[in-house]
Write a structure and sequence with these properties.
By secondary structure, this protein is mainly alpha-helical. The N terminus is likely disordered. The protein is globular and about 75 Å long. A three-stranded antiparallel beta sheet has the order 1-2-3. A hairpin with a 2-residue loop joins strand 2 and strand 3.
């Protein structure tokens, strides 16, 4: 254990060094995207890179100011900070500035910030504090419900802006809840519902229902008490024949036959005293088909064409216009792939310099890294992010305070979701929902918000030997 006290020398300098490395890379990437010789020579601090440099200095100053604050402050006032963040999320709906269709920003002259960044921090503190309260157990239904409410309230308010990207980030708190003992059944249910929603966007409901019946019939066969593998092979053979019949436009025949097979397998399972499994799987077929139907209906009848395009860009790019909705992703992939192994060199990226990639200093900043630094540079940044997540996990597990451990996992979850979605969407692996790459994307409120979250974690860790 380190000695008692709050001296800055107790701070985890490895994590701080990773932080400095990431924000430095971010400034360099914003600089190369925004560089214009005449403008930079005239007034550097009026440029995007200049403003980012100012925010970088402000963030570092804020980092060290946080180290001067008593560590108990963050737990004591966690609910107050959470309440302020909720108030700001409500206020921005009425007083905020509409930017690109979302009322997510407060604007004061040339200064603007997103209250959702504060909400991430406030929610992390509040949820960590609540679960650290005496006699709180995530096996208790009441504790589960209150935990869900704590992060679903800001999620709902952000969806009203609407800002689906920032709202999705709040689902990262499930990672912390899982670490603290939340029943895995919630994650199974969430995965199933999410899968059915996506299937409903892409496939007709009848095919989704048929696929569920085939899959669950195999599960039931594998749970028979005798000759399970023979029954399973028979089911698989039936599915192959069914697939061939579907190719001959005999879907209705295959569907009714598959229903009969599923019901037969359910009756056998029921007779073998496993009726609960049969009931759950048959119910899942009905519920899954219902979710897919609603998703399909919402996609075709409720969503606007531009909203449909966003989903199709991710799930069905072949249906999108390469010069329209698919343009951003195509240019992003081209920029990354053109970098090759070693990249074109700093400030030598042609696609990024000539603005072929929209939003390249914010949502698509990873394209600049890919084009100029190549595979090696991209891999290096991803490795640096994983090293940061690893360090945060190490810090979390060595805490004596339950509040500090839970807060650390909340921050790790937020960062992980940001990394996964932002880097994934530049390669077409994730939907384009407009969330920044932490510490690298342009944006003062984002940089300051992530800096504060990390600084508080390192302050708590520096005092982990106390109390």
């Amino acid at each position: 254990m380190r000695p008692r006290g709050s001296s800055i020398k107790n701070m985890d300098w490895t994590t701080f060094s990773i932080y400095i490395g990431l924000i430095t890379v971010g400034l360099l990437m914003v600089y190369t995207v925004d560089y214009d010789k005449s403008t930079f020579a005239r007034n550097f601090f009026s440029t995007t890179a200049g403003k980012q440099a100012i925010w970088m200095v402000i963030s570092i100053v804020a980092f060290f100011l946080i180290t001067l604050i008593e560590w108990k402050f963050w737990q004591t006032f966690s609910y107050l900070i959470y309440g302020v963040s909720i108030f700001l999320l409500v206020a921005v709906l009425f007083l905020g500035t509409n930017i690109k269709g979302a009322t997510s920003w407060f604007t004061f002259g040339s200064f603007s910030f997103q209250p959702s960044e504060i909400a991430k921090f406030g929610t992390s503190l509040a949820l960590a504090n609540f679960l650290s309260s005496y006699n709180m157990d995530l096996r208790d239904l009441r504790t589960q419900l209150i935990s869900f409410v704590i992060f679903l309230v800001p999620t709902g308010l952000i969806l009203l802006q609407p800002d689906a990207g920032s709202a999705l980030v709040f689902m990262s708190f499930m990672i912390m809840l899982y670490r603290e003992g939340l029943n895995p059944i919630y994650f199974v249910i969430a995965t199933f519902v999410g899968g059915m929603l996506l299937a409903g966007f892409v496939f007709p409901v009848k095919y989704v229902a048929l696929a569920l019946m085939w899959a669950f019939t195999c599960i039931l066969a594998l749970n028979f008490k005798t000759q399970k593998w023979l029954w399973t092979l028979g089911a698989l053979g039936f599915f192959v024949i069914g697939f061939l019949f579907i190719q001959q436009d005999q879907f209705r025949l295959v569907f009714f036959a598959s229903t009969a097979v599923l019901l037969t397998a359910s009756l056998i399972t029921w007779s073998q005293k496993k009726g609960r499994l049969a009931f759950i799987l048959n119910s899942a077929v009905i519920v899954g088909a219902g979710i897919s139907f609603l998703a399909n209906y919402a996609f075709t009848e409720i969503l606007e064409p531009h909203q449909q395009d966003r989903i199709n860009v991710w799930l069905q790019p072949q249906k999108c216009d390469p010069r329209g909705s698919l343009y951003n992703v195509l240019q992003s992939k081209m920029a990354i792939s053109s970098g090759g192994l070693q990249g074109k060199g700093f400030m030598q990226g042609t696609l990024t310099k000539l603005n072929y990639v929209p939003e390249q200093s914010t949502d698509f900043i990873f394209c600049t890294i890919g084009e100029e630094q190549g595979f090696l540079g991209s891999f290096g940044i991803i490795a640096l992010y994983f090293l940061l997540l690893y360090r945060i996990t190490v810090l979390a597990e060595r805490q004596r305070s339950g509040f500090s451990r839970r807060y650390a996992y909340a921050i790790a979850g937020i960062l992980f979701v940001h990394y996964l979605i932002n880097i994934g969407m530049t390669m077409g692996l994730m939907p384009i929902i407009g969330i920044p790459l932490p510490f690298i994307s342009k944006g003062g409120s984002s940089l300051l918000g992530f800096t504060i979250m990390l600084a508080v974690l390192l302050k708590l860790d520096a005092n982990r030997g106390i109390g």
